[in-house]
Amino acid sequence: MKVFGIVGWKNSGKTGLIERLIAEISARGFTVSTVKHAHHSFDVDRPGKDSHRHRIAGAKEVLLASRSRWALMHESGEQSEPPLAELLSKIAPVDLVLIEGYKRDAHAKIEAYRVETGTGLIAAQDTSVVAVAGNGGAVDLVVPVFDLNDTTSISEFILRHVGLLETTQPPSDAPPLQNDCFALPQGVNWMPVDEALDALRRRIQPVVGRKTILASGALGRVLASDVVAKRANPPAANSAVDGYGFAHGVTTDGRQSLPLLKGRAAPGAPFADTVPVGQAVRILTGALLPTGVDTVVLQEDVKIVGETVQFDGLIKPKANARNAGEDIHAGQMALNSGQVLHPGDIALLSAVGCDQVSVFTRLRVGVLSTGDELVEPGRQAPAEKTYDANRPMLLSLVEKWGYDPVDLGHATDSRAALQDKLDYGAENADVILTSGGASVGDEDHVSALLKDAGALSSWRIAIKPGRPLAMGVWNGVPIFGLPGNPVAAFVCTLIFGRPAMSVLAGGGWLKPQGFTLPAAFEKDKKAGRREYLRARVTPDGRAEVFASEGSGRVSGLSWADGLVELEDAERRIQPGDPVRYIPYSSFGI
Ligand code: AMP
Ligand code: MG
User: CB 3.0 to 4.6 Å from 245: which of 283, 324, 355, 416, for a disulfide?
Assistant: First the structure.
C-alpha cells in the first residue's frame, strides 16, 4: 500500500487540498483511503450522541454501524498514542493512503502553504516534504512548488512519486496487429510516398514489452516511461567560480575591503559556519554557498591584503552563484517516454539521481531472404546463382538502429519453405523483413502465401527504386515484404522500414533531416513518382550522384554517403540547381 502525506500549518488549505486530491485520484481509477490526525476529540465523538454515552459509560471499543458505513472507536486510555504504522495496518488494502497531519513521520509529504498565514515553511527544514502547494510568492526552494489549486499536477506528482503512475502509454498491453491491419482501399493509381508514409504511421503501434535497467547501461534504449528528476540539479546553491563569497547587501560601489574568515568552502566540503554580514570566505567552484553568502567575487578580481579581501565595488547581486535547481527542479520532467537515450540523456539521468530507468525491450527484427537463385557468399557458385547481399545488409541496418537482429536465413521459392521460416520468425521476432518474391510473378511466393492467408496488402507506392511493398501480418507479427533488388530493398528500408520500426520499438516516428545542396549533375526527371539517387558530397559541397541508376548496382550503395531525394513532380535539373541531399547519418547509419 502506498502512502503519501499532506501537511501544513493551520489555515494553510490542507483539508481542501486533500479533499480535491481524493476526488481527482479516485476519478483516475485508483482506490484511496485517508488517515487524519486530530488533537483530542473528533467528529464522530460528540457529547450527547449515543456512541459518546456508550464511551463515557466505559466501553473499551464502540463500533458504530449502519447500512452504509461503520466506524470503530477504540479507547487508547493511558497508553501512548499508537504509531502511524500501527494505524495503517488497520486500513483495508487500497492503492493509496493519504495522510493528513503526522508531520513528524518519515513518509513523503506535500506541504500546503498560504503566504497570508505568515508562517515559515515546514519544507525549509524537513526533507520528507518533497513538494509545496502554495498560493504564490512563497518560495525559493529545492523542491517543486505547485499552485495550491492545480489539483491535476499535484495528483500526477503524488502518483508518480509513489510509483502508481508509470507511463503515458501501455504499449505491450496493446492488442496484436490484425491480419487486415495493412489493408488499403484498392486504387488503380500508385500512391505518393508521403501518403504511404501517413498510411503506415496510422497502422502501427509499439509491440514490445518493458523492463527496468541501470541508467548507465541504457544508451540507445527507448524510454518506456517519463522520467521525473529525483533531485534538483544543482541540489543547492553553489559557486560558479573560484573566489570569495559574501552577502551582497553590505557592498557599495568603490573599493571594498571585507575581513576574511578562516577556513574555506570547497566542493564536497562545505563551510560549517555562518558567514557574518560584512565578512567574506574563500570559496571554490562547486562548493555550497555557506549560510550568509549570496554573491561570489572572482579570485582574479581581488587582492588579499593581510586578513582582508579587497575588490572594486558594484558587483551584481548573486554574481557567480548558481541557484539551487537552476538547471532542473526535483519533480520536474527530465525525459519523456519514447526518447531514445543518447549520451547527453545518460548524463542528465545521473545528475538528477535516476540510477534505473524503465525501457522497452529491444525490438527483435527477423530478416529473411527469398529466391532459388540465392547462395551464401564464400561458396563457389555457378553464374546463375546470386550471392545473398540483402540479408547481411538488412541485418546490419537493424543492428545499427539498436534492435536485435534475428537471422531467419534463406527460403527457396517454395511455399512450404517460406511458411516454415515465417512461422519460426513470428515466434522469435517482433517484426519480419523479407526481401524478394514480393511482386506478383510466378515465383513471388511471399505475396502469394500472405495473400492466401488473407494477410497481405500490396502497397503500390510511387517510388523509384522500389516495387510494390508487400505489407502483411503473420501470426500477429508484421511483415515488410521488400523488393529483391538490393538498391530498392535498401531505399525502401530507409524510407519506410526505419520510421515504422522506431514506432514498433516504442519510439517516435522518424523523419530524416535533409539539406539543400547545389547539384553536381543534370537529369530530366519524370512526373508522378519520387526518386532516390545514390549520392555523395563533392569536396566543394555539391551533391553528385552515382553514374548508374540500375537497381541491382550494389556498388553504388557503397560508393554513396547519402541519397538525393527528388520530389514527385516533373523536374529538369541543371548543375548548380538546389536538390535535397539526405546523408546516411540522417538515416542513423
Ligand atoms: P525478386 O523481387 O524476388 O523478383 O528479385 C528481384 C531481383 O533481386 C532478382 O534479380 C533477384 O535475384 C535479386 N535478389 C533478390 N533477393 C536478393 C538478395 N537477397 N541478394 C541479392 N539479390 C537479390
Ligand atoms: Mg525472387
Answer: 283
